Amino acid sequence: MFLDGLAFWVFMLYIYVIYLFQLCTDPKRRPPYFTDKSMESATKYINRKFPNVDIRGGSQHLSNIQKQKSAILEGLHSYYESFIDVMEFRDHVYELLNTIDASQCYFNIGVNFDFTKNYLDLIVTYASVIYMLSRMDDKKAIVGMYNCAYEFSNGNSDPSFPRLGQMFIEYDHPWKKLSEEFGPHTKSVTEALLSLLMVYPRRNLSADQWRNAQLLSLLASPAAMLSPACCDTMACEYLSLEAMERWILIGFLLCHSSLNTNANSQNLWKMALRNGLYITVIRDEVLNIHKLSEDFFDSLKGYSKRIPDIKECKELNVHLSHGFSSGAVRREKRNFLRNALKELIKVLEDEPALLGPKALFVFMALSFSRDEVLWLVRHAENIPKTKTPEDYADSQMAELFYYMEKLRTLLAQHRYVIQRYHLQYLSQYDALVLNDIIQGMYVCPEEESVLMSSFVSTLSAMSLKHLDAGEEFDLKPFRLDWLRLQAYTSVGKAPLALKDYPELAKVMNMAQFHTRMMDNVNELLCETADLSILCFHTRVFEKLFSQSSEDVSMQRYLTAFPVICSHFSQCLHPLCPEEAEDIENRSLKMSVNFLEEISRQTCMVVLEICAEQCNLHEKLLPKHSAETISTARNKKLKKSLPKKGDVPKEKPGTESLRKDRVIVTNLDKMHQALTELCASYSICADFTVFQHIIVPAEFLFSQLEIRLNKVIVQMANYNQSTHEIARPSDLLAGIQAYVTSLHSLSCYTNIDVTRLVKSVLLQQTQPLDSYGAQTITTLYTNWFLEGLLRQASSALIVHCPTKQCFVNQNTENEQSFHAEEYSDICGLRSLAELIGPFGLKFLNENLMWHIISQVGELKKLVSDNMDVLVQMRANYDNPEAMSDLQKKLTGSENVLKRMTIVGVILSFRSMIQDALEEVNSMDRHCPFLMRPIKCLKDFIYSDGDIKVTLSVYEMASAAGLPCEIDPALVSAIANMQTDNSSIEEEFKITCLLLVFIAVSLPTLCLDPNSFYSREHGGHQNNIHCLATAVNHLAAAMFTVQRKNIQTQLHEFLKVASSILLQLGQNVERVEIKNRDSVYLLLHMIVEQSPFLSQDMLEMCFPYVLLRNSYREIPVDSSETRGK
Fold it and tell me: Which of 172, 724, 746, 1102 lies 20 to 30 Å from 56, alpha-carbon distance?
């Protein structure tokens, strides 16, 4: 009992010593007193004088310690107490080992397994603690500095300091001192180690021997498939090979005299030496056992013969012997285990009930696999000089990890099956056999009899009713009693000697395993499948992942790496919480890095497939049909055939034709890679790392979201310097091809592609995506403003109302793009579908910014001509006065040009608004929502409450409905109002602006491009957009100023009509050249205005002039150019 209870405390102390060692070796976490230059003199003095540090004689060196004595006592207290714990631990170990020797205890791993295992663990752990303590460079300085501070504070030395200092001095050469201490215990240690002769050689077989014995195979003997897996040494079958090697090598290092006197000891020692170059002390601390043994025996007399043995074993490890080195042997073992575990999993998945009788096979498989993993890990970080370094790397380790995780999952899934089987086995077999053995014993002392009777009664009392009722079993008292019985019956003069009753030991060891299947499977998994040590071998772990990810056949197992990170919490100890945060951060970081890399590879393959499908889809676009049609037509007309040297163009679909299925295309390879990568996500839907739930599929979702955003932006092909960009219709077709291909991803793995696509496309409707990068909304907004509309404002591109698009002018300088391809109905519908209402809102905001900047300049022009415009407004029907005032007016052309720019922008905005209405199709999708909106819009009055009116118009505009008053323009103009100007002043400026526009209209006749084109339905210099500008701008400005829109526009109509009618009186002047085209502009203003009517126009302007103007406009625009 003392051994078992001591184990927990010993392990805690061991963990804490390691933690202190890491603190002292890490420059960032060392106690600050050893990095402070002011303490450097004191530290050197203490190390030089230790342990006899005289605070009076060294006062000049220790003055800083005296100044900071309180801080030093507080800061180093935990270190000092830990060293005292180590000293007390040593005392307890001395006492326990002496008691064991005095009791002449019997050790045999096959009989009293727990007793022997705990004894060997205690010896190795004690030696490891002392070894790690000796490697701590700052231990003398810490203890000495603490004692000096203590003496300065209390006037005398700490009571524990002399013994602590003496212990540090003694263990300057730890192995020599330890071997001296263990000299009296050689008999007990050797007896325990030699009992491994019946286990270690059998466990240390080659892969060929495993294969010949059909190890771990349930199919090897089908007739015995249902027979329970049991043997004389149940616990030894899954005992860690690494632990046995550590016992043997460190045990014989401490009790080396038996190597010269016992041939069996020497054979066992050599066998362990031939099995590897390094053994694990703890975590990532390893011992080069050959070098250590050679140096140690070289310092001892009478051990010269052992040195050649060590060198021989080292050579066998590194270099090929009979075709194999230890690295090659281990590589073959891993290959065997991969196939063996795969077969075992397939059988158990098909017949999970076999987990009952064959549970031992599962734990053996896990233990064997863990041994091979740990061997590779500790040697991969310390690769020796060898001709075969590939033996210390494994690109297929992911598969072994996967099978280990799969076995753990099977045990968890079918826990009830395992419990049900073993409950019946315990109550109906183990209890009966144990009772028969007890009955047949000749000698049975009372205390031992009570214990064994309790065993039988405990097992017999178990029934399926308890299991079916959901009761939790706790059989730990049973196992503790068995350990107590082992201790009672293993002493030299015990009345009942366990070694005389091997059958009792066999049955009890078997029953103990069966009880662990009832309530202790998780702890058994920690013993056999715990890979938490990988947390401390970060470089090796990451290297194994990298090697596995490069092998296509291993990609389906890659998720096993991040899942293993969920085991890292098992390396924590509840009594050392200081390291929990560091290990948690390390575990999460590794897990996230692995998943991000898997997701990155998967995402890369997915998008390559999508790109390939997009290219194939692009070949089917209508724009590529012209060449095919032309070829067919030429063939029909029997025109000249292509020359022999010309390679015929492949038709779409040719890539799917193949003569042999063996021929593998690039797309086939990508689909295979995708299948492998997506299969890795099926290992588990989620797992927990330190209370953090991690969902692997979400990492793929995140990566796809990031990369798909980048791909869509790249597909736009925006070039800021040349103002080139992909057509919206082409981009939409490409995105649709990507989306169609992405939906096939759900056939490979469980991922919500619809949510992914919605998330990405929604981000593209915003100016910036969730990662702060530009989206297609920003790109197309910039292009339409800087590319198309800027050229339209210079009349290089013309707004064409008949075609509802913009078209290029026939100029000498050819444009870099065809405006109609971007602004036709198809192009704008595609744009509206790409960037949606949110994107169009952003585009509208930028359009409004440009309009407002033009309005600001127009107001400045009005202010400059204020007096003249006031007089013109009063005398518009006096030709003579108007003629004189016209000469005083400046900036007429500038006003018309800026108004034309505003009109072009508003015309474009109207086009995209119509496209949005058609794309949204809200009448079809949600008529119940659209009908109330339309009803409100139709019945609202613009001269009512302006806030209510604008709210309704804003809602209608968002739904894509045209409105009499543009709410966005109203809002923009309202925001540009300054605090200094009153509403009346703004109203006056607006009225004068309309007068300015009206009196400037005759100057349009001077521009040769002011002629009206029937083909385009507008003027060649875009002045027809003035109609849109006047109507929208006037409505918005007068709405802000709370004035009657119709009244003011009627005034504008009177002034414009009067001015234009005066053109007819000047027959010989040059202004009459395009007079008819300008007359039509007046008709357009009235026709487009919801506030003006034809009756109002006829009151001011004769309709006969409009009719004649339409008649005078030539059908072919080339005639006009000729004139």
Answer: 172
